[in-house]
Amino acid sequence: MLKISKLHKSYPIGDSSLHVLKGIDLVVNDGEMVAIMGSSGSGKSTLLNIIGMLDEHDEGDYELDGVHIENLNEKKAAVYRNKFLGFIFQSFNLINYKNALENVALPLYYQGLKRKERQEKAKFHLEKVGLLDWAHHLPNELSGGQKQRVAIARALAANPKLLLADEPTGALDTTTSYEIMEFIQHLNDEGKTILIVTHEEDIAHMCKRIVRLRDGVIMEDKIVEQVRAGQHV
Amino acid sequence: MFDLDLWREILQSMNKNRTRSILSGLTVAFAIMLFTILFGIVNGLVNTFEEAFVDDATNAMFIYSGNTTKAHKGLQAGRRIQFKNEDFDYINEDFEDKVQYSTARLYRNVNASFRGEKNSYSLRAVHPDHQYLEKTLIKEGRYISQNDLKNKTKVVVIGRLVEEDLFLKTKALGKYVNLSGIQYKIVGIFTDDGGDNEERLIYMPITTAQQVYGNNDYIDQINITYKPELGIDQAIDFGLDLEKKLKNRFSVAPTDQRAVRVMNMAQQTKGVNQFTGVLSLLVLVIGLGTLIAGIVGISNIMIFIVKERTKEIGIRKALGATPRSIVSIIILESVVVTALAGYLGLLVGVGVLSWVGPGLEEYFITNPGVKTQIVFSATVVLVIAGALAGYVPAKRASKIKPIVALRND
């Protein structure tokens, strides 16, 4: 599904540059649920952004679902993002003037689907996250957990191959965090490949594999026994 | 090409971000409104000016005589200069290549009566050319003719208001009117754009008047028009030359301002042209100024809008929006808002003009208004400016990496 080798990335800071990723090798197979951990500055978010094509790498190879990702122009990147990837952010990133249903339907708009089809699919995914009754509410009328569920529904709407979550529980309290994690685990059970960036140990242990980063290199990559979030709720 | 979904997106975005839409709309509406009003007022000024000259031919010259104020060639001051038929002929012959129309005038006041109705009127005894000089419009019948002059026929042409006064409900044409004891046949009725006074006049062949009033060949005034192919400066020279020659003919001092006077409209026309030139410049400055103010305003707002939407742009890009779709959504929104607002501004501006317009006549502003075409072009300029002003930041925003845009919390 995902193949990364000798990946480098540095950011210019004034005259010098900051070497953030120093040769990352990572392979993720279909159906995996991987936590990427590390303290702040370890490069975990940068890695996720490169995987998500939100940012570009300087050196190395990146292959996603058999497609070589390099020298993408903006248009191609947009198409790939839409086709392959679903994003879940810490700060939800819903469009605040669109209601829940419209937010979920937005990636489908960029897929070029007809309005009616978009509505139906969006409704289906909203129902899946249990928020169909809230379809016509604006984001600021929803709780944090509800917003994240709308965001998950939106990420799923385009039926992506890979789900990328950047600190998905970072802005939520523990109970809500576990609810969200339980939901994400369900998605993984259904076969979705999921990558989660987190710095919380308990969240990481709800995944099946933990990759630890420090100073731009992978320190540790191990398979763990998954803790079911449902047990805590 | 028409993308219903795109328009739906734009309308929603406009509708849900009302403050933003109203703010940018207001700038454009205000600019167009100011543009319309200022333009209308200047146009009103021009109208007033033009109206003041609408009555007479703009290429006219009026030649008057009076008493000499200076002794000259052994003749005393205070001598009365009297034009005669020979002077009229002299002008026509000596300046044949420059004179277009010419007429003499003899003024009298007459008491006119028809059946029981009586009134006094000014009488002008003239040549047939007078019709063109005064821009007299014949309503019924005909004007004074060359035949009338030759035969000294007792005919008159009366103004519309004379007919109203004296003839009440009956038709004046063909009837006989009594002027100070003599019966004249009415051969024509005229109207004149110069106002009521001009329509309370009676015209008579000059030869008839000369015979009736004193049996001489006296003339009170000579009016001519110069040929239009003469330029303004040539016409002014012609007027000066004519004055000089007439003064010489009557042995009047060249510096005598009273004895022989030539009032040349060419001189006035030159003044009018200069004035309208200045006004046009003013219009240009006002128009450009308002437009620039509007362009600056809409540009600022567009930059602000793109800044405000950076995060939304990031989200859209993360969800698969192409740069093109980002740019088009911002530009189209800007175009829709500015076009609607421009139209609104035009309506308000025109409304204000027609509301206060009639009250402005005492400030020399007549019938202020604007050509829709001009305001339309102004609106188009603003719409394009808004689109361009939005394009640059939108293009830049569409190129921002989504991650940068999303970090911008």
What is the compact description of this entry?
Chain A is of the alpha/beta class and 233 residues long.
Please specify the SSE layout and strand pairing:
The complex is a heterodimer of chains A (233) and B (409).
Chain A: E1 2-13, E2 16-28, E3 33-37, H1 44-51, E4 59-64, E5 67-68, H2 74-84, E6 85-88, H3 100-111, H4 115-128, H5 144-157, E7 162-166, H6 174-189, E8 193-197, H7 201-204, E9 209-214, E10 217-223
Helix pairs in contact in A: 3-4, 3-5, 4-5, 5-6
Chain B: H1 4-16, H2 18-51, E1 60-65, E2 83-84, H3 85-94, E3 99-114, E4 117-126, H4 130-133, E5 137-141, H5 146-151, E6 155-159, H6 160-167, E7 176-179, E8 182-191, E9 201-205, H7 206-212, E10 218-219, E11 221-226, H8 232-249, E12 260-264, H9 265-308, H10 310-318, H11 323-356, H12 372-399, H13 402-407
Parallel strand pairs in B: 4-9, 6-8
Antiparallel strand pairs in B: 1-11, 1-12, 2-10, 3-4, 3-7, 3-11, 5-8, 6-9, 7-8
List keywords for this structure.
heterodimer; A: 233 residues; alpha/beta; Rossmann fold; 4-stranded antiparallel β-sheet; 7 helices; B: 409 residues; alpha+beta; two-stranded antiparallel sheet; 13 helices; 12 strands; 54% helix
- Kindly give the count of domains of chain B: 2
Fourth CATH level, the homologous superfamily of chain A: P-loop containing nucleotide triphosphate hydrolases
Count of alpha/pi helices of chain B: 13
Largest sheet of chain A: 6 strands, mixed
Q: Radius of gyration of chain A over alpha carbons?
A: 18 Å
Strand order of the largest sheet of chain B: 3-4-9-6-8-7
Low-confidence stretches of chain B: none
Helix content of chain B: 40-55%
The shape of chain B, in one word, is elongated
- Overall SS class of chain B: alpha+beta
